[in-house]
From TrEMBL:
One of its GO terms (biological process) is proteolysis. It comes from Malassezia brasiliensis. This is Cysteine protease. InterPro entries: Calpain_III_sf (IPR036213), PalB/RIM13 (IPR051297), Papain-like_cys_pep_sf (IPR038765), Peptidase_C2_calpain_cat (IPR001300). One of its GO terms (molecular function) is calcium-dependent cysteine-type endopeptidase activity.
């Protein structure tokens, strides 16, 4: 009897199930399943999820695409219900089970009637309580319009053998460069970027992103997506959350982008983007591209030979270049050493909170900058971008530079700065404005009095709420001792440094007349400051 029982026992389903869970990195208590991801693991066919209630869902085009592929045998299909199934769309349909998967057995179109035949896999073994529906048949036939209303998603798996060309890269996001955002547990938008080159007139291609490990669902979820941007040449982008062909963020293992290549497009930047907790490293991922046309896929840019990583914070000061508080932004001195045979390449990147607009600016010289403008400004990262700013200088002269990290408005937030160069570099944070000096400040329209009890070095900074053609002069009785004006025609701040000023009373005058100007005085010894 025992021998007979053993002879009828089928072991391979249990072994397959166990192997599947091991491959998932999970146990029998895993948090759920996904038909497209499961079939991908079993068959290697490319997974895609089509959200039936998404704003961009195209019912007619989707039907034609799936119907053609189904009859060609190039896809596998299944349907998934949501948390609630609204069966009021059809009185002829029986109850569907929420959060359940139904396999599609056929798609048919006859006499303008489009039908989908599907099967409930639980009916072969009996559904677990409380979803026992005795009068529901295993096989069901629905109109395509009913499918679009009843179900949440279509899970599609595409045969990779149908694509003449394919390539893949395996990588892991280098989170150490962005560790500055970790202590705040903020949402960080960070991406690895790849250059995709296509021949003119290329057909639609598939870009598949797979991450190799999911974290416990009790932890903060992490979302991934892949985006594509048409460029004129290989180009790394600072802003990857707007424009281009945007992928869908998912908290699962897989996401797919269908890239419709433009007729004249040859270059694309693919961004592997991530949203979620930055307190742990991003898992390994694979990026795969499938196309009917030849292409090249390369990660960019390659890390330059010399790298410096720093962390810091905005302390509630700073602002954009036209703000009178711009000078309080964090600033870094960069010394670029010479590179035999060519000019060095310089790349700087700052990352911070995902919704915080930031910008990088590079100027000549090793000193704190009060305002941006010619002739010292070399380049910037461009318009303010959220969460990340990237500055690239293909060729820079060896020497001293200042890098300014600015925000659109004063904030308190942490950041991480990475500076890369093909030549050796030295990077250090410049001291805050007036560090180690005595400070006095007063508000007036045009005139202040300064009283010094002894000789000292003095630095004057006049700021205005609105950009103006400011001119600052320091008088001793009726004699002009020093004056200054900004290099830019209009500015919100002008600085005047006097190396040595003897004891006495002096007048500071700002022209043209205006309202609400602030004078900040930094000195090596105490002094008195009065608006007048």
């Amino acid at each position: 009897m025992a021998r007979c029982i053993l002879a009828k026992t089928v072991l391979w389903p249990a072994l397959l199930e166990k192997a599947f869970l091991v491959a998932q990195g999970s146990s029998y208590a895993f948090h759920g399943s996904d038909a497209a991801a499961d079939l991908y693991m079993l068959t290697g066919w490319i997974p895609e999820h089509i959200a039936l209630h998404a704003p961009g869902f195209q019912r007619e085009k989707t039907w034609q695409r799936l119907l053609q592929a189904w009859h060609q045998g190039t896809c596998l299909l299944s349907l998934g219900t949501g948390t609630v199934v609204d069966t009021t769309v059809s009185d002829t349909l029986r109850t569907f089970i929420p959060l359940h998967c139904y396999a599609i057995l056929s798609l048919d179109e006859r006499n303008d009637q489009r039908t989908v035949t599907l099967v409930n896999p639980w009916k072969t073994q009996g559904a677990p309580a409380p979803f026992v529906v005795d009068d529901t048949p295993a096989l069901l036939t629905c109109a395509w319009e009913e499918v679009c209303a009843l179900f949440d998603t279509i899970a599609v798996n595409w045969n990779p053998a149908e694509f003449a060309h394919a390539d893949e890269v395996h990588a892991s996001w280098d989170w150490s460069a962005d560790a500055g955002v970790c202590p705040d547990h903020v949402e960080a938008a960070v991406s690895d970027q790849y250059h995709l080159e296509l021949p003119p007139g290329a057909q639609e291609l598939l870009v598949h992103l797979e991450r190799h490990r999911l974290y416990d669902v009790r932890e903060t979820p992490e979302f991934i997506a892949v985006h594509a941007f048409h460029t004129n040449a290989p180009q790394k982008l600072a802003q990857v959350e707007h424009g281009g062909e945007m992928g869908v963020y998912v908290d699962g293992r897989h996401t797919l982008l269908r890239l419709s290549a433009q007729a004249d497009a040859a270059h694309y930047t693919l961004a592997v983007s991530r949203h979620g907790s930055a307190t742990r490293p991003f898992p390994l991922y694979s990026l795969r591209v499938f196309s009917q046309d030849p292409f090249t896929l390369q990660r960019m840019p390659a890390m330059l030979a010399h790298r410096a990583q720093l962390q810091g914070a905005w302390q509630g000061e700073g602002g954009h270049a036209l703000s009178p508080r711009f000078r309080h932004n964090p600033q870094y001195a960069i010394m670029v050493h010479s590179l035999p045979g060519s000019l060095p390449q310089l790349v700087a990147r700052v990352t911070t909170q995902a919704q915080l607009p930031v910008q990088l600016a590079l100027v000549r010289g090793k000193q704190r900058i009060t305002y941006l403008g010619p002739p010292t400004l070399i380049t910037s990262s461009g318009p303010y971008t959220r969460g990340l700013a990237l500055l690239e200088v293909p060729a820079v002269q060896p020497g001293d530079y200042t890098l300014i990290l600015s925000t659109l408005a004063p904030v308190q937030a942490r950041f991480a700065l990475t500076v890369e160069c093909s030549a050796p570099i030295d990077v250090e944070r410049l001291p805050a404005e007036g560090a180690g000096m005595y400070h006095r400040a007063a508000i007036s329209n045009t005139r202040w009095e300064i009283v010094l009890e002894r000789s000292m070095s003095v630095e004057l900074l006049v700021s205005s709420d609105e950009p103006e053609s400011l001119h600052v002069s320091v008088y001793d009785a009726h004699t002009v001792l020093a004056s200054a004006a900004p290099a830019s025609p209009v500015s919100t701040c002008v600085a005047l440094h006097i190396r040595m000023l003897t004891a006495g009373t002096y007048t500071v005058l700002v022209s043209p007349p205006g309202t609400h100007r602030t004078l900040d005085v930094y000195s090596t010894q105490p002094l008195a400051l009065y608006p007048s």
